[in-house]
Amino acid sequence: MPRKILVLPLILLLSILSSCASLQPGYEKPVVTISSFEAIPTQNLLPRFKIGLHIINPNRTALTLRGISYTLSLEGHKIMTGVTNKLPRIEPYGEGDVDLNASVDLFSSIRFFTNLMRNQKKDKLSYSFDGKLDVGTLYPLIRIKKEGTLFLTQSKFE
Q1: What's the whole-model pTM score?
Q2: 10-36 burial, b if ≥16 CB within 10 A, otherwise e?
Q3: Is 18 among the domain residues?
Q4: CATH number of the domain that residue 151 is part of
Q5: Which domain holds residue 105?
Q6: DSSP-based helix, strand, coil % in the chain, nearest 5
Q7: 91-148 residue pLDDT tens
Q8: DSSP secondary structure code for residue 46 in this structure
Q9: DSSP letters for 17-37
Q10: Are the C-beta atoms of residues 72 and 51 closer than 8 Å to each other?
């Protein structure tokens, strides 16, 4: 008898969890693009940057972001990281902009610049932006990965 008592709540819990995953059939992942990147004034030694993200919500329900965490890497070196919870609500079939304030990782930056000096003839750098958007407990985390190349001689992105 005690075994049946333990199995019943477990089955109930599993059925509730599986139904939560299907609450939003047809839910599409929001589209996130990097819209700007600029240095911002700082009072301390380490530089800070503002990274602009543009988010498009292709769903029929509003996107209420709870938080974002992110990392920007150059040539495989994690250069900047940050988090924010000051985010707009993005209406159904709407779009919005988010500004992220990123801090530089000092030691990783030193390793990056040391490697850059060793390879002085390098005219391009690979970059990677990894982000994680939290839209609440009923939805999975939205992972963003943007990779590309910065051309140092032509001042363009790819």
Answers
A1: 0.69
A2: eeeeeeeeeeeeeeeeebeebebebee
A3: no
A4: 2.60.40.10
A5: 25-157
A6: 20, 45, 35
A7: 999 999 999 888 888 778 788 778 777 776 667 788 898 999 898 777 778 888 888 8
A8: S
A9: HHHHHTSSTTPPPPEEEEEEE
A10: yes
